[in-house]
Design goal:
Blueprint lengths: L1 E8 L6 H13 L4 E8 L5 H13 L6 E6 L18 E6 L4 E5 L12 E7 L9 H4 L2 H8 L7 E4 L13 E4 L5 E6 L10 E6 L2 E8 L10 E5 L8 E6 L4 H4 L9 E4 L1
Parallel strand pairs: 1-2, 1-3, 3-5, 11-12
Antiparallel strand pairs: 4-5, 4-6, 6-7, 8-9, 9-13, 10-11, 10-14, 12-13
Helix pairs in contact: 1-4
Amino acid sequence: MKRLLHVIADYKPMSQEFGEILQRLWTQNWDLDLAIVPTSVPPMDTVGTGFIVYQLAVGHNPPGTVVYANTAPRKERKSPMEDNAGEKLTYARLENDVELVVVNSGLSLSLVKDHIVELRAVEVSHRGSQFRSRDFFPPVVADILHGRHAERLRDAIDPATIPKMASSVVMWTDGFGNIKTSVRRSRSTWEEGRKVHVAINDKRATALVTGGVFAVDEGEMAWAVGSSGFDDPFMEILLRGGSAADLFDHPHAGMKIEISS
């Protein structure tokens, strides 16, 4: 059977780190008809990781899809982390049968928590290497891809323990400078055609509420129904012909958004 493996990590695209991880994954799954798709997220950004995990795992995937995500800021405690220990690896199966191998850090699983039908601890070392995503975790991914679940999975974890994404924050900035927010269309109470004030990162701008990202004049800001989020899309902030991220001084993921009349 063909398999699709999404690899999400907080390394630069085409970097040495990504190269070594992909090399290890290829060598341990050489016998499979496997397509690997790497996606980079900003360093230590579990908000962005949670957004990308959701978009790639809940979206339209072929049978046999696995998502492997590693963003491990090692912030479980502020005291020294002995022997490079970090957040632990978990296994999840979603209602669409997509399987996840994800470091359970911060908000990495926050948007898929309501789609999880099975969540378990994984038997693997979580200490002993600065580069666990290369040294320890690829064999787990290989076991999942080969269907050797029983060899790795341990105690069940309650999905309710996964923290929720905040209701009105920046989640992602795309390559066009559009800011994707955690506000769902169903929760945006502003009617289309009116102007609202948007405040992020101590910057303010006026935006037109629209049902689509291009339903504004060139040079105008929009508070618009975006392209992410499936049946209940996330709202986006965009500047047509420019960059909303530039205007708001490149707000980082997790930064609060305020919308007012």
